[in-house]
Amino acid sequence: MTRVLLTTVFRPFGVVGKYNKKGDEELLDYLSSRLTREPGLFALSSYVPASGLHLLAANLPAKTRVLEWPSIEEFVAELKKQPDYVGITFLIKGFGKLAKMIALTRKHAPKAKVVVGGFGTALHAVKDLGPDYISTGEGVRFMREVLGASPDLPYVHPHVSADITLKIFQNYNFLRKQTIGLITSGFGCPHACDFCSTSAYFGYRSVGFLKNGRELYEAMKSQYRASKGTIDNFLIYEEDLMLYYKRKLAELGQCIEDDREATFSYAGFASVKALSKHDIEKLVAQGFGHVWIGVESSSAPYKKRDGRDVKGLFDELHSLGVTTTGSIIFGLDHHVPEQLPGEVDFLSSLRPSTAQISNLMPAIGTKLRERLEDESRIMSLEYKDADLFSEIVSHPNFRPGELTPAIFSGYNQLYDAIGPSIYRIVDTWFTGYKNLRNSLNSSLRRRANLYAGRVKEALPLFLRTGEYLPNEDIRRQVTDMVDEVIAELGPPSSEQQAQSELIARIFALEDIKRQQLEETPNEPELSVRDYAPTFLSKEALIPPDRLTSLTNVDRRSEANRG
Ligand code: B12
Ligand code: SF4
């Protein structure tokens, strides 16, 4: 039986040197490093698994082991078991680690074939490292062909999930975390914004994975059942989900609405342009719960911003209980230093539930990168700098080193203006509850009940933590919300009172720790998951003459064109 080892690049991330720069370990925490990057104690935390590897593993005719964040020693220990294939996923930032891992594979598992994939393969230099195969697009089809199986077999969607908690609660395992399921719907985006790495990587078009709404729903339902009903909230990977209403969302929404056993919610990424074409109330009735909108700037020169007024759109979403992520970019061509606080004011005015501020990142392979190279404006050629907080571009209106501090003070400005994300999230659900509880539409009333349940569950967090809020104004807003919640939904139970007491003590302890102890980098631990082979029947194999198409790296995109 063929054995495949799939892995991410290695840890540690928090050791500055050849492979990492300062703060790299933080970037693995999607929420605390970016979307809820807040100076206070309320920041959320979530370590998100490498869905790509699980997707591959669940769909191969081979015994497959997935390693996430191994140390070099842990990776070598696996290599010594002599897998037949070693698949490594990497981003541009991880190129140095990839080189080391290929060398280690050649040394410790000399017979293994090395397959590399993920967004880092946009780099031409990958070929120089001598992998046997390079996947430059959708990987399941590619990997199946490598293994001699037909790429066109149906897809199996694995159960992949991520936990969410407050960052300061990470080490208190007795506190319940929220878990969301991660569903992959498709890849790529036709909007073709010049800076967008995912759009360029998939050739400015949509590459489908799950075919329709029924398949999305089945993937959710299967995960819901396997988790014994604890996972009913999902993040869907698809670049602009709202472009696929007819093909996917309408059917998904109907399945969700008709489901009497569970009340599913889903989150996704969407453009203003695509979202503007939809009846948001209808989407909400059918499970739409959170959206990430790339706002980019108060005067964004991007077509994806055509359509509705952004502020009106965010307001409507919030009024229906839909939480949001709003993201903006610093260092766009039209920016001057004095303008940046105004950009943050604009973002604050949208009151997104979570937010991202980042540098303009010209990933290799994008049109933006080509233009900036032509204009000799690429300041750093270091792969390690390929992230959202490094300054890669020289800007005529900014001194080098000026933009990143402006980003971090922008996050602080946001926190002072609109408070912690978790407050805005709960407040949005409460608003949705108030607006929908008396709706004539029973599906909207069902959403109102869902919001009410979430708000009640979150209440203990706010009962005794007022002193840790950023200022008087936010303290008053939170107190008003708590009073209104209690008036509408009833007082906290004695268990919730006890919980709030415990939370207050944890806040006090963590507050002192912050003041007195140096923060130690938080590294993810190794995670190992094994997958049994799928699709072993004879019909699943492709004729040997077609196999030759993938025998060397020059034909690297063969499978992705299928
Ligand atoms: C979730 C996510 C994360 C998570 C999990 C990352 C992980 N290890 O998977 C976390 C929060 C940890 C993260 C961190 C970072 N991320 Co991130 N992340 C994403 C996001 C939103 C989704 C990725 C995903 O899971 N998609 C779903 C899976 C199924 O798709 P996939 O990974 O693309 O895999 C498919 C193919 O690419 C291919 N494939 C992938 N790996 C392999 C391996 C083999 C062997 C084969 C054959 C095929 C193959 O096959 C898969 C199935 O078709 C993407 C944006 C996006 N929409 O894709 C950004 C993205 C990948 N992240 C990005 C960046 C820059 C980062 C950070 C540097 C932080 C930052 N933004 O500054 C850090 C770096 C972390 C690190 N050191 O590795 C960039 C990468 C740009 C680039 N060209 O390198 C992206 C594209 C965002 C963007 N638009 O800029 N990220
Ligand atoms: S809309 Fe978003 S995903 Fe699509 S090309 Fe633009 S930035 Fe990329």
Count of alpha/pi helices: 19
Distance between the termini: 26 Å
Number of strands: 16
Bound molecules: cobalamin, iron/sulfur cluster
What structural class do helix, strand and pairing data support? alpha/beta
- Uncertain segments are 547-562
Helix content: 25-40%
- How are the strands of the biggest sheet laid out side by side? 2-7-8-11-12-13-14-15
Q: What would you report as the Rg, rounded to the nearest angstrom? A: 24 Å
Name of the top-level CATH class of the largest domain: Alpha Beta
Task: From the 3D structure, determine the CATH topology of the largest domain.
Answer: TIM Barrel
User: What does the overall shape look like?
Assistant: globular
Q: Kindly state the mean pLDDT as a whole number?
A: 94
Total number of distinct structural domains: 3
The largest pleated sheet is described as: 8 strands, mixed
Strand content: 5-15%
CATH superfamily of the largest domain: Aldolase class I
Can you name the CATH architecture of the largest domain? Alpha-Beta Barrel
Describe this protein's structure.
There is one protein chain. Residues 547-562 have low confidence and may be disordered. The protein has helices at residues 30-35, 51-57, 72-79, 95-108, 139-146, 197-201, 213-226, 245-258, 272-275, 280-285, 310-319, 340-350, 367-374, 403-418, 421-436, 442-463, 472-489, 494-516, 544-547; strands at residues 3-7, 44-45, 63-68, 85-89, 113-117, 133-134, 161-166, 178-184, 186-187, 207-208, 233-237, 265-269, 288-296, 323-330, 354-359, 527-531. The strands form three sheets. The chain has an eight-stranded mixed sheet. Strands 6-5-4-1-3-16 form a six-stranded mixed sheet, with helices on both faces. The longest helix is centred in the last third of the chain and has 23 residues, at 494-516. It has three domains: 3-156, Response regulator (Rossmann fold, 3-Layer(aba) Sandwich), CATH 3.40.50; 178-360 and 408-418, TIM Barrel, CATH 3.20.20.70; 436-516, no CATH class. The protein is 38% helix and 14% strand. 46% of the residues are buried. It has 19 helices and 16 strands. Helix 3 packs parallel to helix 4, helix 12 (340-350) packs parallel to helix 14 and helix 16 packs across helix 17. Helix 8 (245-258) links the parallel strand 11 and strand 12 (265-269). With 562 residues, the chain is of the alpha/beta class. The chain starts with a strand and ends in a 15-residue tail after the last helix. Residues 8, 27-28, 30, 48, 50-52, 55-56, 87-89, 91-94, 115-120, 122, 135, 138-140, 142-143, 184, 197-198, 237, 239, 361, 363, 386-388 line the site of cobalamin (B12).
